[in-house]
Amino acid sequence: MILLSPPKQIDLTINGQKYSGRAEPRTLLTYFLRDELGLTGTHIGCIVGKCGACTIILDGKAVKSCLLFASQAEGSEILTVEGLAKGSQLHPIQEAFWEHHGLQCGYCTPGMLLATYDLLKRNPNPTEAEIREGISGNLCMCTGYVNIVRAVKSAAEKMAPPKKQKARLSRASAPLRR
Amino acid sequence: MHSPSTISEATLLLKNTDDSKALAGGQSLVPLMKLRLVSPAHIVDLGKIPGLSYIREEKGHLLIGSMTTHNEVATSPLIGKRCVTLSEAASRIGDHQVRNRGTIGGTLCHADPAGDVPAAAVALDAELKVAGHRKGRVIKARDFFEDVLTTSLRRDEILTEVRVRVLPPKSGGAYLKLGRGASDLATVGVAAVITLDKAGACKDVRLGLAGVGSKPIRATRAEDALKGRAPTDDLVAEAGERASEMSNPSSDIRGSADYKREMVKVYVRRAIRQSLARV
Ligand SMILES: Cc1cc2nc3c(=O)[nH]c(=O)nc-3n(C[C@H](O)[C@H](O)[C@H](O)COP(=O)(O)OP(=O)(O)OC[C@H]3O[C@@H](n4cnc5c(N)ncnc54)[C@H](O)[C@@H]3O)c2cc1C
Ligand code: FES
Ligand code: FES
């Protein structure tokens, strides 16, 4: 027997902004984000936890938003793909996916970007094996993953504040100083 | 959807509502509901009950709150040091996102015969602390699993804590899994713990098998092959044979029953060797 209960108000913070909306107890977070709040960047693939297209960052951790009821996210802080870029300035992870053709149709991409975001936060300099493990919850039907792995590697390099980049910068600016 | 804030509220809700289910990380329950394989009228969300997520050591035991996530178990230095079999089992579950939400209590209560942590719990002789509407009890892992997705929990009972004995000195352990790609259950999984005596003979051996029966299997006859003796290659192979005889797999998308029986031999041998290497 399925009892339908009335919708409840849900308040939460998404990409730094306060949102509220209404959801029935049975509404999954993915549908709440997309249909109630209009944040359609979060994609729906399988809706049973297998494909990772719906991956978001919930209170700092990557989760599949189709395996959560909207009401469980009450009061939480969420990052969706819409929150990655700053205006027209792409996030380094997005840039890297663009430059390395880490996508074809783009269906898996929001989930891939956020799985990558989570991976690089935990492990800023992952090996290829660690990258593959890190995105193993995300399926891609198009790319064969090779370019995605390249993109993640490149994103790691972009995001690191390493000596290498500084060295390159100082070399570039050397003539000016002279 | 009910969101109780205490354990007794939750057990009361479970007792007083027909057709209700507890919700932990939702990594098994939500897909089952989505596929309409279960459609409970009431969901009792355990997520708002404080104090169910912890890992600590007390009097020779590791105590793990039932709402502790797989990733918390997998990355806990304490569990890694005191009971590596459990860390490895938790780390082999699904993918990172699933491990961020799924809980140790959830995977035990879900009782998938191919689950990684259930096999480890059986090998580790874990004790499961349960709260009920009237009174609590402690269930041994071996008595907890009854059949496919079936445990000895009563309707009003909630698993609150998993207790595992800290491995004594001169012990080693491992969890090895044969799976198809990342996000899949075990085709065959083997949880092992071994303790050696001063002379290098096996004082204690415990083996749990995932994926080869209607519940996690404790491979006692394989353990007997090694107990009291030095673990020679021949005896380790004998243990693999016996574990394979004790397993009762069925043919499915993950492989034929014959293949799985062969793989039990291979993975039991490897898990024992890995455990010995860690003593
Ligand atoms: C893509 C994917 C891949 C996966 N891969 C693996 C894998 O490789 N290996 C593996 O072992 N598992 C795998 N799983 C399952 C995973 O381990 C789940 O986390 C686990 O089975 C359920 O834990 P949960 O906390 O999410 O429980 P829920 O889904 O919330 O609950 C599961 C069941 O247990 C009951 N329950 C939960 N907590 C309690 C409690 N404290 N007291 C009483 N009853 C309770 C619920 O009522 C429900 O019936 C996978 C899942 C997904 C989605
Ligand atoms: S839509 Fe959530 S994992 Fe596929
Ligand atoms: S780019 Fe098409 S699914 Fe990944």
Features of the shown structure:
heterodimer, A: 178 residues, alpha+beta, Ubiquitin-like (UB roll), DNA polymerase, domain 1, 2 domains, 5-stranded mixed beta sheet, 6 helices, B: 279 residues, Uridine Diphospho-n-acetylenolpyruvylglucosamine Reductase, domain 3, Enolase-like, domain 1, 5-stranded antiparallel beta sheet, 4-stranded antiparallel beta sheet, 12 helices, 13 strands, binds flavin-adenine dinucleotide, binds FE2/S2 (inorganic) cluster
Task: Report what the structure shows.
The complex is a heterodimer of chains A (178) and B (279). Chain A has two domains: 76 residues, Roll (Ubiquitin-like (UB roll)); 68 residues, [2Fe-2S]-binding domain (DNA polymerase, domain 1), CATH 1.10.150.120. Chain A contains six helices and five strands. A five-stranded mixed β-sheet of chain A has the order 2-1-5-3-4, covered by helices on one side. In chain A, helix 2 packs across helix 5. The longest helix of chain A is centred in the last third of the chain and has 15 residues. The radius of gyration of chain A is 19 Å and the shape is globular. Chain A starts with 7 loop residues before the first strand and ends with a helix. With 279 residues, chain B is of the alpha+beta class. Chain B folds into two domains: 159 residues, 2-Layer Sandwich (Uridine Diphospho-n-acetylenolpyruvylglucosamine Reductase, domain 3); 107 residues, Enolase-like, domain 1 (2-Layer Sandwich), CATH 3.30.390. In chain B, the strands form four sheets. Chain B has a five-stranded antiparallel β-sheet with strand order 3-4-9-5-6, sandwiched between helices. A four-stranded antiparallel β-sheet of chain B has the order 10-11-12-13. In chain B, strands 1-2 form a two-stranded parallel ribbon. The N and C termini of chain B lie far apart (48 Å). The mean pLDDT of chain B is 96. Chains A and B meet through strand 4 and helix 3 of A and helix 2, strand 2 and helix 6 of B. Bound molecules: flavin-adenine dinucleotide (FAD) and FE2/S2 (inorganic) cluster (2 copies). The site of one FE2/S2 (inorganic) cluster has 10 residues of chain A, from loops. The site of one FE2/S2 (inorganic) cluster has 12 residues of chain A, from loops.
